[in-house]
Write a structure and sequence with these properties.
The protein is built from seven helices and 13 strands. By secondary structure, it is an alpha+beta fold.
């Protein structure tokens, strides 16, 4: 059963410095924030935490989760462009994601539904990068589909950060109306953590003019003593914010899932 856990390590709403300086909340920001679920929750077999650090121009990022009878659904998405266009694309993708999971469909059916819904939007080049996942607590099995996005990352028991190997599909909204999606799977061991991130994390500019990248993720994880889900998210968002004095130019989404040990 999914239970909300008090988000004592980070607030329910995080407003970017750029938005504070502007003294206003954009329409896109309102759409985005209203789409997001509680930032931390207990699901069968683990704890999940996530957050979206909004960029100077909202990029349509979202994350979502829910637990059904046969497992928990997880999703992270990053829509094309900025502002209300990106927010609208994100809303359509999220609606298709939620509609399929209510039917207990497989995640490949959800990916296809999202893809076809995006193709129907009259926006030139409309696309959404996404990671669509399913977690089955009793077997500790994680299943996922990567679409035009950074694949899921695995934080090992000794703190190493690895990309999970699997099929890579182009972004949703591109290609033929009917597409095939391959589902990858992996059994998680006690002490391992899953990390789902958007392009805004990897492309965050740093003080030296480079990009935060997977290396920045690894460095942030290496300096985190608490391996729980919420402190991991907090450490990453602190590192992303500190990487540069400039505001984020794109949303940065971070989701961490930490499976429970057999004794918990």
């Amino acid at each position: 059963m999914l239970n909300k856990v008090p988000p004592h390590l980070f607030g329910d709403q995080i407003v970017s410095e750029a938005q504070r300086l502007a003294g206003m909340t954009s329409v896109a920001s309102e759409i985005q924030q209203n789409l997001l679920p509680p930032r931390i929750a207990r699901i069968s077999g683990g704890i999940l935490a996530g957050n979206v650090l909004p960029g100077y121009e909202i990029g349509g990022d979202w994350f979502d989760y829910v637990e059904n009878r046969d497992g928990a659904w997880l999703g992270v998405a990053d829509s094309l462009g900025h502002g209300t266009t990106a927010a609208a694309l994100g809303g359509v993708a999220l609606g298709a994601f939620r509609a399929k999971r209510k039917l207990n469909a497989k995640i490949d059916a959800s990916a296809l539904s999202m893809h076809q819904a995006i193709r129907e939007i009259p926006i030139d080049g409309a696309l959404v990068n996404a990671i669509i996942c399913r977690w089955h607590g009793p077997t500790s099995t994680f299943r996922w589909i990567t679409c035009g996005h950074q694949p899921p990352l695995l934080i090992t028991t000794d703190g190493h950060v690895l990309e999970l190997e699997g099929a890579h599909h182009e972004a949703l909204g591109l290609g033929e109306h009917h597409r095939e999606f391959h589902i990858d799977r992996r059994r998680l061991e006690p002490g391992e953590r899953l990390l789902l991130i958007s392009d805004g994390v990897l492309e965050r500019r740093t003080h030296d003019g480079g990009a935060f990248g997977v290396r920045g993720v690894r460095d942030a994880i290496a300096h985190t003593e608490d391996t729980a889900a919420a402190p991991t998210v907090r450490a990453l968002q602190d590192a992303i914010t500190a990487a540069s004095g400039d505001p984020l130019h794109d949303d940065a989404t971070i989701v961490v899932f930490a499976p429970s040990s057999p004794q918990q």
